[in-house]
Amino acid sequence: MRRRVAVFKGDNQGLRTFKPFVDDFSAPYWERVAAWDEWTARRDDWLEQRQLFAEVHGWPGGELERFFEECYVFADRPWDPGIEPV
């Protein structure tokens, strides 16, 4: 008999699909920065919810999945093709 395990109910799909202007270079840069800041705020909230869930039920996918989730690196601003790299 299989044991039932609680499933994390965070807005994972909404987080993945919320990048409206980040990759749309026709949108003004300041709009893409605002969208990026909102996305990172949502991701921080989502990660906090997931960590609270993990304290009670364990991390969904195990410790290796937790490691990859917490160490995932993303830029602090969207890339702008009009700015030369330093």
TrEMBL record:
Q: Which domain of life does the protein's organism represent?
A: Bacteria
What's the name of the protein? Uncharacterized protein
